[in-house]
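Researcher: Next sequence.
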Amino acid sequence: MRMSNWLCIGVVGLVLAASAFGQGLTGQISGNVQDPAGTVVPNAKVELVSTGTGQTRETNTDGLGNFIFTQLLPGTYAITVTAPGLQEV
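Model: Next structure:
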């Protein structure tokens, strides 16, 4: 286990939703990253991988630990979160 990696333990509100403006082809995944104590993790790297296509997208959490991926096609996705000083779980 590498101390610099931390798998998304505190992601809540993970949602794949259709467009709010009627039916659309794309959706979004958003969440909040927290450590086991419930403290938000700002500036964590969040990686999203489509298990069907292998396409990868990355973003960082904001100051409140929030992230969002928009314009996603329907499918199955895997999320990995890494942050310095936290271990993989």
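Model: The radius of gyration is 13 Å. The CA atoms of residues 19 and 85 lie 37 Å apart.
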